[in-house]
Every structure is written in C-alpha cells, then in structure tokens.
Amino acid sequence: MELNQLECFIAVLEEGGFKRATARLGITQPALSYQIKRLEEELGVQVFHRGPGGITPTEAGRVLVDHAHQVIAAVREAAQAVRELSDGVTGEIRIGTMKCAGTYFLPQVLWEIREKHPLVRPKLLYRNADELIDELLSNRLDVIVVADPPPDDRLKYQVLFRERISLVSAAEHPFFGRAKIDLADLKDVEFVSLSPQTTTGALIRTYLVELGVSVVSAITTDNVETVKRMVEAGMGVAFLPDMVTGGEVAEKRLARSAVEPPLSMEVVIVTWRDSRRSLAVDAFIDELGRMGRQWRAGSAQDAERDSWRN
Q1: Fold designation for 3-81
Q2: Where does the chain have alpha helices with state H?
Q3: pTM value?
Q4: Which CATH superfamily is 86-154+270-309 part of?
Q5: What is the tens place of the pLDDT at every residue in 145-170?
Q6: 3-state secondary structure of 64
C-alpha cells in the first residue's frame, strides 16, 4: 500500500466522486481509477460502493479512512521534522477561523509571523465552528481560531480573549448614543441580522432565543461588512462584535450600546490535545497568545473609556 493510493482514496471520499477528486489531485481520471484499483487489489476488498447515487464507502472503506488520515498526518509530520533540522521554522500552517477574527484580528498576527519567520506559509480557511472542528479532527487543519467551539475530549482549548458584542445603530436611529438598551426596547425594532449559519450569528440567535426575545429582521446576510453598511443606510440596528466596528464608531458613523445581560463571545485557539506540532505551528500559536494578551488589554481600555463617556 502506497501513500499516493491513500491520498487518492481520501480525495475521492471527501470530494464525493472521481471527477472532483481528479481536479483536486491534478491527475487524469484513468490514473486515479488505476490507483484506487491497485489499493483494492492489495487490500483484497472494495473500498467504495459505485452506484447511481454516486460514490459511498464500503464498511472496509469506513475502517480505512481513519487509518489513512493518521498515516498521511504521520508522513507529513515526519517530513516537516526533517526539514526543520536544517531550515528551522518553516513550512505550511493550515489555519481555520471565522470571518470576523480572520479579518480583524489575524492579519496583524500573520504579519508578525511573516516578519519573524519568512519561510512560513500560512493557509487560511473560513468556516463556522462545527465545520472547523471537523476539519481539525480530519487532520486537514493544524489550528483553528473560533468563538465558543463545541467541546471534544480529543482537543485542547486555549482562550485568547473575550470579545464584547454590542448593539450598533446609525446616527439617525433613536438608539444612537444610548449607553444601554433594555431588551424590552427591541420589540418591533427592525434588525440587520447576521446569518445563523455564521458562528457569530448563531451565538446571537441563541442569546435572543434563551431570553425569549423575538426581533424583526429587515435583512439577513452572512457578511459583516454588508451588515455595517445596511445599518449606516438606516435599514435597522444590529448586534456585532466590537472588533468589527472600531473605525465606524471612531468616525461617529455608528454607535455601540450595551445590552443586559451582557453579550460576548470567547475567542479560542483549538488544537489536537496529543499531537506533535511543527515549529511553524508552535510559533504561530505563541504569536496568537502574545497578540491575544494585547487585545485583552486594549479591550479593557475601550470598555473603560465607553463607561467614562456614558
């Protein structure tokens, strides 16, 4: 059994068929079919059911998939360890994150990594929390930065910072400039809502449901920038993490109001609990921790200033 055969097997499984797998692997369909045929001949079993509904794994295929991921990860780690002997901190870092952290927090972290370790190659993937956990557990990511991830005993969680989520409004709205908004005041108020398909949107929806608050959504989108522009245009108010509204608040195009009970999200680093990490991943996590401490200090100062102003 060869590594290339296992990579072909995983590609067909994850892509749901041979055609998309060939595009991912950069090989022809006959070449891919040949590798799968050789794998099945060596194992003495079929690894896929082939039918009108597409490709599905056999029982043997389901057993093989976990072992295949482990083998591929072990080979990747071995190659990285050998490179590090001569090159030091180098190689790819496969990072998963949600959009707001990836847009407003990670750029400075990645800039610092680039300055300190120019041979490191970060690769960034945006997904929601559940999808990122699945990607990590499948060894397709090295580290994820996400808010309020689901627990898993196989994983290690390290809190970076807690980010406040405020109600934001435009200058023409009656809420503009109010330090605090009672949830009862939200009745019949139009909202620009983040889609519950996003990590932050799901957290906001859970918060409102648990408090028994029903809001009217004039528009729903998965794009934070669209939410901000729609609020500025007078389409409604919105719940948004403070990290995404700093510029607009400073320019007085938007204002933040606190809600009670407070709404916030815990931004967390997640990695495998028991796994050897590359020097590049360790350097990235160290830089995340350093920037997280700065972020916490800055958030505390912002909260103090907001309290003083109000």
Answers
A1: Arc Repressor Mutant, subunit A (1.10.10)
A2: 3-15, 18-25, 29-43, 59-87, 99-104, 106-116, 129-137, 199-210, 224-232, 246-250, 279-309
A3: 0.71
A4: Periplasmic binding protein-like II (3.40.190.10)
A5: 999 898 999 999 999 999 999 999 99
A6: helix
